[in-house]
Design brief:
By secondary structure, this protein is of the alpha+beta class. It folds into two domains: 75 residues, no CATH class; 229 residues, no CATH class. It has three helices and eleven strands, in the order αβββββββββββαα. Helix 1 packs antiparallel against helix 2. It binds 2-acetamido-2-deoxy-beta-D-glucopyranose (2 copies). One of its GO terms (cellular component) is mitochondrial membrane.
Length: 343
């Protein structure tokens, strides 16, 4: 008489719910998992900018880069932005390159470079974020370092060209530094965004210090600055199978990368189980409501009879009482055996 109980819809709902955060958002900056250690990088969210410039004096060319990273969300376009000046929607790491022709005055062009993100357009490139503890890394240079290495993929430049393009990725090393929040010397993206959000104040350091030319091929060394987020390189690297991938390397010194990092206030603690219980609760509620409605319409049921399995539900208090009595009885029996058992 009760509607048939199929668990398939509930299971598929659960499956979808557990897949969503990964496929849609890439990863959750509030709960980053690296080799069973959790990190909360919520405080590092929002767009943060680092600079770099390289030049080819023989060709009288210069390239100035602004790299913007947002760990927690995809980057928003600036007001009046277009694909000529902005990365594709879904980018979390974006490079804006200014190509300067040193031979002709004031003639420069802007080229956006998608470095990492999850993009809906084209063939749906995915950020495929990977996290590993520096202490577990095979590399010798990581010995004794505490922190996480994040590899963020999905970028390509030129984005639309399948053949000529080069894959892009960002590798960010979050290094434990108990003295730093990670926002020291920070440069926020200060230009107004499309959705008109109010931007926070600029970082506390002088901007002129930020633009530093770097020697070519100084791999492995980071920019010499006191800022917590530092540029360490943007070179072509060989991934497995001889595939070239141009890799933006950043280092981020922060206490949130310490394995005993302080808990971040206001962080949401809904883990998988939180959502699991919410979904189970909603499913039960929906089942009861729908079941009642069916019973009401089909059988004209009233009162307790409205509920599917109404009689079972009605009996729950008695079953519980019975159970409690048994438990109490066995505990008392066990506790008093010494006194009375012999009688
Ligand atoms: C890069 O950043 C600097 C400083 O924030 C800014 O003046 C410049 O216009 C930016 N360049 C591009 C191409 O966005
Ligand atoms: C800038 O250079 C482009 C070619 O690279 C040329 O077509 C354009 O006329 C130049 N603009 C100025 C203002 O010199």
């Amino acid at each position: 008489m009760a509607p048939s109980r199929s668990r398939a819809p509930l299971l598929s709902l659960l499956a979808v719910a557990s897949l969503l955060p990964h496929s849609v958002w890439g990863f959750d900056c509030k709960d980053i998992l690296a080799d069973r250690t959790h990190f909360n990088f919520k405080e590092l969210g929002g767009p943060h900018v680092v600079h770099w410039q390289e030049q080819d004096l023989a060709k009288e060319l210069q390239w100035k880069y602004n790299f913007t990273v947002d760990l927690c969300d995809s980057l928003k376009w600036h007001k009046g932005g277009s694909l000529a000046t902005e990365c594709h929607h879904g980018a979390r790491v974006c490079g804006i390159r200014e190509n300067i022709d040193l031979s002709s005055d004031k003639n420069s062009t802007i080229t956006p470079i998608d470095i990492a993100g999850t993009f809906q357009t084209q063939n749906g490139r995915n950020i495929d974020a990977r996290f590993e503890l520096l202490s577990r890394s095979k590399s010798h240079s990581d010995a004794g370092r505490e922190g996480v290495r994040a590899t963020l993929n999905g970028g390509r430049f030129p984005f639309d060209k399948k053949k000529e393009g080069t894959n892009q990725r960002a590798i960010i090393e979050f290094v434990c530094d108990k003295e730093r929040t990670g926002l020291e010397g920070d440069e926020k993206d200060v230009r107004p965004h499309e959705d008109g959000d109010k931007e926070e104040k600029k970082g506390d350091d002088k901007k002129e210090e930020k633009l530093r030319a770097r020697e070519e091929n100084s791999n492995g060394k980071c920019e010499d600055t006191d800022a917590s987020l530092r540029f360490c390189g943007y070179q072509e690297e060989i991934e497995d199978k001889d595939k070239k991938v141009r890799t933006l390397r950043l280092e981020w010194r922060t206490k949130y990368a310490c394995e005993d990092a302080p808990a971040v206030d206001g962080g949401s603690h809904w883990g998988f189980f939180g959502w699991f219980f919410i979904i189970v609760f909603l499913a039960i509620a929906a089942y009861l409501i729908f079941g009642s409605w069916l019973n009401y319409n089909r059988y004209g049921a009233r009162g307790w009879d409205l509920l599917p399995h109404g009689d079972t539900i009605r009996d729950i208090p008695y079953i519980a009482k019975d159970f409690a009595r048994k438990v109490v009885g066995s505990v008392q029996g066990g506790g008093s055996r010494g006194g009375y058992a012999a009688v």
